[in-house]
Write a structure and sequence with these properties.
It is elongated, with a radius of gyration of 39 Å. Helix 5 packs antiparallel against helix 6. The chain is an alpha/beta fold. Bound molecules: adenosine-5'-diphosphate (ADP). Adenosine-5'-diphosphate binds next to helix 12 and helix 13. The site of adenosine-5'-diphosphate has 20 residues, from helix 12 and helix 13.
């Protein structure tokens, strides 16, 4: 007797161990997994009823009632197991694994599934009345009920195969292949039983399918990996959506800001009443602060996405310091503050690094010192050590300002964190130091600070830069601040400039700024108009907006270049698209330079001088 049951007993032991592991492990509560739990319990009941039927028919051959109860339970279990298996495979193909409604809709969408469900339910009831006969040694079952089980398994296999071929659902190819194997395993067990009726393999084979499913899909660890992949994909999609959103918000905000800053800057205030001139200055200040906020938010997004990169090339630290000196002097002009620069060690004339980021780091620290100091001194201390090919730079920005309370120390580098220490009227976003720290991380540097509340603060940053020119700067302070654009406009009356933008206000702003050079300015409101104008007229420089309806700036540039062989007029993109990498993207498209809106007069001056070859 035990020989006949060997396979079933081994299967039962194995499935009990598997169940223990499965139920103890933490798992996701998907409907799919819930059906699998039912499959596990059904497999156990199936094996128990099979073993019991064999046991009682051997032990008590005269007591037909008890054997027949177990045999009927066994039949019903085989049918319910097959039904649950069908449900499991169909649910695992459904997209939303946790929504009952969508799963029911998904299953009922196929008429064949519905017919099968009704058919199976009727058969469960029918199985109580279907006839069977059985031999005891070996234990062999025959009769209507057995024929039905073979028909049912064939039908179920067909439904599954058809649904696998014609209705892939959310399954990828790999998963479909595993499902296909499990279906074939299921079907093979019935074929084997039909060929060798005495083999008694159905319950053990269905147990094997259950185990197979565990190791391929239902292992909670595998589910976690799937779920993590899924979450990562969703996060990536959400992140891309956030970047697109920020890029478009930044674009939309920059366009009106261009008008606010550009127009308020170009109004001559000399002859205006004092209060009107003051209002214009305030409008301009507010616009600049708003622009700083937009830029900070964009920077923080870039950092978080890991999209901030270094653009290393030779630069002059002396130029940066001179420029910062003039900016600090303008900012503190009305306050009783003295700005000092101290140097220690030898500073090479040319370093290799990301000039813009070095400038941004020092500017953030110096403008904080200006903001949070009412009187006294602000000192920029520069210490340079040359070690081999590298120059180790340490900058200290020392102020005699409001200081930072010790209890606020850890808030300093937190996003949007502004300390509450009597700075209510001082504008800021609480992002500057976070960005500074991230920029330094990127450059392989570090930032620290020390402060005495109400006495002053020292921020220290240090980083290494490669050396491009070892000649030593003798006296940093002796460097003249680079001339700002407003100091000196060259005369551009002999140049023809074309301005292309669909937004009339933007054209007005650019026109006003360019007029101070006395250029001959022509304007166009679309890419098409630009193409028509350039047919008959020769321009020395074209400023082309990117986002325009019908034909955008990039298409217009392509058309300009393809229409005239050897098209030589420099075309500069003038755009409100200012996210990281924009400049590189436009240069790759064939623009010769990039000017972002709101227009920086200094940047505009640089481009004009470069493109028109003005000394
Ligand atoms: P913001 O200056 O835009 O508020 P920051 O990130 O640059 O943002 O600075 C965060 C906070 O750190 C500031 O709000 C201020 O409270 C404090 N802080 C920064 N620099 C100084 C300084 N030099 N002296 C005193 N407090 C400072």
């Amino acid at each position: 007797m035990y020989d006949t049951m060997k396979l079933e007993i081994c299967s039962l032991i194995y499935i009990i161990i598997l169940q223990c592991i499965y139920f103890v492990k933490r798992k996701y509560n998907f409907i799919e997994s819930k059906i699998y739990k039912i499959l596990l319990l059904l497999t156990t009941s199936l094996l128990v009823s099979d073993i019991s039927a064999i046991y009682f028919s051997y032990k008590y051959p005269e007591n037909e009632l008890i054997t027949s109860v177990f045999i009927r339970i066994y039949f019903i279990m085989v049918i319910i197991w097959s039904l649950a298996y069908l449900g499991y495979v169909l649910v695992s193909k459904s997209k939303d694994k946790n929504d009952y409604d969508s799963i029911i809709k998904f299953i009922l969408a196929k008429k064949t599934n519905l017919i099968y469900v009704v058919f199976s339910l009727l058969t469960i009831i029918g199985s109580f009345f279907m006839t069977y006969t059985h031999d005891i040694i070996p234990f062999v079952l025959e009769g209507e009920i057995i024929s039905y089980i073979y028909i049912m398994s064939t039908v179920i296999t067909m439904i599954l195969l058809l649904s696998l071929v014609f209705n892939k659902g959310s399954m990828d190819v790999e998963k479909s292949f595993v499902v296909l194997l499990s279906i074939l395993l299921y079907f093979a067990s019935f074929i084997l039983q039909a060929i060798i009726p005495s083999a008694s393999v159905i319950s053990s084979s269905l147990c094997l399918v259950t185990i197979f499913i565990y190791f391929t899909f239902e292992n909670p660890d595998l589910k976690y990996i799937d779920e993590l992949d899924d979450l990562r994909n969703k996060a990536e999609i959400a992140n891309n959506a956030k970047t697109d959103f920020l890029a478009s918000v930044s674009h939309e905000i920059r366009t009106p800001l261009n008008a606010i800053i550009g127009l308020s800057e170009s109004i001559p205030t000399k002859d205006l009443p004092k209060d009107v001139a003051e209002d214009i200055k305030n409008i301009n200040n507010a616009g600049s602060i708003l622009l700083e906020i937009v830029n900070n938010i964009l920077d923080i997004t870039k950092v978080e996405e890991g999209k901030m990169t270094l653009n290393n090339k030779p630069y002059s630290l002396a130029d940066i310091i001179s420029e910062l000196t003039s900016l600090v002097n303008v900012t503190i002009s009305e306050k009783p503050i003295k700005f000092n620069i101290e140097t220690k060690g030898n500073i090479p004339t040319k370093l290799i690094g990301d000039e813009v980021k070095v400038h941004q780091v020092l500017l953030n620290l110096l403008s904080n010192a200006c903001k949070y100091t009412k009187k006294g001194t602000i000192t920029l201390n520069i210490d340079s050590k040359i070690i081999g090919d590298k120059c180790n730079l340490t900058f200290k920005v020392i102020d005699t300002g409001i200081g930072i309370k010790r209890s606020d120390y850890e808030k300093i580098f937190q996003k949007f964190e502004r300390l509450d220490q009597g700075q209510k009227n001082i504008e800021g976003t609480g992002l500057g130091l976070v960005i500074t720290k991230e920029l330094l991380n990127l450059m392989g540097g570090k930032i620290t600070f020390d402060s005495v509340y109400q006495q002053g603060t020292t921020f220290t940053v240090s980083f290494d830069q490669e050396i491009a020119d070892r000649t030593i700067i003798t006296n940093l302070q002796a460097f003249e601040p680079p001339k700002t654009v407003l100091d000196e406009h060259f005369d551009g009356s002999q140049y023809n400039i074309l301005l292309v933008d669909d937004n009339l206000l933007n054209i007005k702003v650019a026109e006003k700024i360019l007029k101070s050079y006395n250029f001959k300015i022509t304007t166009a409101k679309s890419g098409l108009e630009c193409l028509n104008l350039t047919k008959n007229q020769k321009f020395d420089l074209i400023f082309l907006d990117h986002m325009m309806p019908e034909m955008d700036g990039i298409q217009t540039l392509y058309n300009l270049k393809s229409r005239v062989v050897g098209f030589t007029t420099p075309v500069v993109v003038l755009t409100a698209n200012a996210i990281e990498g924009s400049k590189e993207k436009y240069l790759k498209e064939g623009f010769c330079d990039y000017l972002s809106k709101p227009i920086s007069q200094k940047e505009l001056d640089r481009i004009l001088r470069e493109q028109l070859h003005i000394e």
